[in-house]
Amino acid sequence: MITDTQVETANISGHMLRTVDIILALLLIIGAAPVLVFKSLYRKYHHGSAIERVYIHDAKDGKIGLYQFTGEGRCCQWPYLINLLKGDLALLGSDKRYYLEPEQGAGRVSYQQQKNQRISKPGLLSFEQMHHRLGINFEDKAAHLHDAQSNLLSYLMAASRIVLTSIFSAHKANSSAQSIPLFNLQLCNLTMKEMLAEIIIQCQHYQALKLTRHPDTTPSAPGHSIGMLQYAFVNAACLNISVKDPGYRRCLQSSCHKVFADGSGIRIACLWKGYAPKDNLNGTDMFPRLCEQLSKNNLSVFLLGGAPGIAAKTAEKMSHRYPNLAIAGTHHGYLDSLANEQSVIEQINASGASVLLVAMGAPRQEVWLEKHQAHLDVAVGIGVGGLFDFYSEKIIRAPLWVRQIGMEWVCRLAEEPKRMWQRYILGNPLFLYRVLQEIRQQKQHGDPIISAAQTTKDPLLTDSVYANKLEDSGTNKNIQHPNLTNQHSLNAQAKQRCKRNRALARFNIHLKRGLDLLCAALLLVLLLPLLLCVSLLIRLESKGPVLFSQQRAGKHNIPFTMWKFRSMYPDAELRRRALQSANEMQGGVLFKMKQDPRITLVGKVIRKLSIDELPQLWNVICGDMSLVGPRPALESEVKQYSFHDRRRLAVKPGITCIWQISGRSDIPFDRQVELDVDYIYQQSFFTDVCLLIKTIPAVIFARGAY
């Protein structure tokens, strides 16, 4: 029963969220006014009318008319901001249901329901959108929406997560494919609901066959027709293992009935190949839903794996959560002898379990199931990794908001850094590199299914396939084609090295851009209160704009507009000529003074702490700058550059670089150039991460900042 206090609190929260919606709608309309006016005139000229209306259901099954530009194309839905301002839509709400005809019964909400529960408006942003992009449609979206709308901070953070995932998600991908080819495997593309339904049907079918089987027949007896179906979940680490482990690879290819895509790394790889996995299928999310379905259908499960006591504790907690769930038995995963293994198999068969979950870690669990497949009297066997550790609460799983932005692996790394650092820090980039190699090879051969390993000796291929491709290509560095001279062979090897280096360089560029977008967007969201406070202080101290824009030289000397917080008085440029003789920077190209009279009081503080540079995060998002790179120079400074100095213009400028963490303005200009050139030649993803980390103490201690 909802109390009056709860109702009053909900009303106050609702008014706050509505105020945020209005402010945001006004800011976006004002900011987008030139585009909106241009679009209106363009559509009016081409279509006769600028605005049309489409209708959706509101929270009470009424009808809302949404404004949008006539026709199709980019920005057509920008007039939705008018609906946001009017209150028809919320910034964050339920998914839009287009109004074709009134929904009879299903969509209607009674007066008592309206009174006892909070009705959510349709939103510009919704959890349905984000969960669909991330493949977690099985999560309870209504409950998460209610939590997000409970207070202002949750509301803004949830909206930010949805925007971030939309920026980094691919929109053009085939989501209807039944299987996805990756690393010479066929990943089954099902939703969580479809996968669970298939498991339950298999269990029921197995039970029906068992009733017709002779009671003395054992699972391994000749002519025994009932067989366990083996399922597997694979993530990026599993596929990295499969490259080096032929036994594990063979198991996934031939023994497993179906293999499912697990994790954000696999999802990224599939999207790069043009496929969209319907759901992120993994044992951890599957387990409670599987237990629920088993309890409803009077089926049982056996838990095998984990440290002693972990499986039993998991069973206890799931039995408490689902009272009707039948746990057929549990056993730890330390099977150190054949006798012990045989004893456990007999225990499993005697339990009458329909589903066997094996938590021994990949590849051991899959190989174990394959080895004993003929002797196990269960319908389904599934390898589930470290699942029991989560549900026994030995390890705390990342919260949903972390999973919603695809960063659960960061929490796993923080939880077990010694065990996980190689898998994530080294393994994830290696996996993505292999995916890019596979895509490149597919483009060369024009085959969308055959993997990239066909033109190199990759363990993913059988020896016969490799030998056939080798005869066609003749480019393997370890085997000389009889028709090639030594010089030709060396040339072929050199070409292969050049191709690998170019592919690695392209991969590094994409990785660097991804790091820029992710970090810049997160920092802008997290630092928004600080940015607003600094803007207010600047405006209170002196008249003039809060932001200072200036033309700077970008990559290859292409000019762009760089943004900073204004730290000087508005007439600073005019006063510079009079102060030119007091320049303290050696070399004469840059102008720096420790006691510059043009700097405001607020400017001294924000310069000391490098806060004045924060608006350049927008330049990073726009692609004019990078987080790490040589500082962008004034066009007047570039004119004074020597041919030697112009080398620093070969890459995109950045917010920080080597000389920023080595003394900043205390370093003379010629030394700055040398440090920038050093960075250009040694730049990589890991170099950028190290420089970003070293920038933090450099900013805190403010050495050389003025």
UniProtKB/TrEMBL annotation:
InterPro entries: Bact_transf (IPR003362), WecG_TagA_CpsF (IPR004629). It comes from the Bacteria. Belongs to the bacterial sugar transferase family. Residues 512-700 form the Bacterial sugar transferase domain. Signal peptide: none annotated. This is Bacterial sugar transferase/glycosyl transferase, WecB/TagA/CpsF family protein. PANTHER family: COLANIC BIOSYNTHESIS UDP-GLUCOSE LIPID CARRIER TRANSFERASE, SLL5057 PROTEIN. The chain crosses the membrane at residues 22-42, 515-538. Coiled coil: none annotated. Keywords: Membrane, Transferase, Transmembrane, Transmembrane helix. Pfam families: Bac_transf (PF02397), Glyco_tran_WecG (PF03808). GO terms for molecular function: phosphotransferase activity, for other substituted phosphate groups.
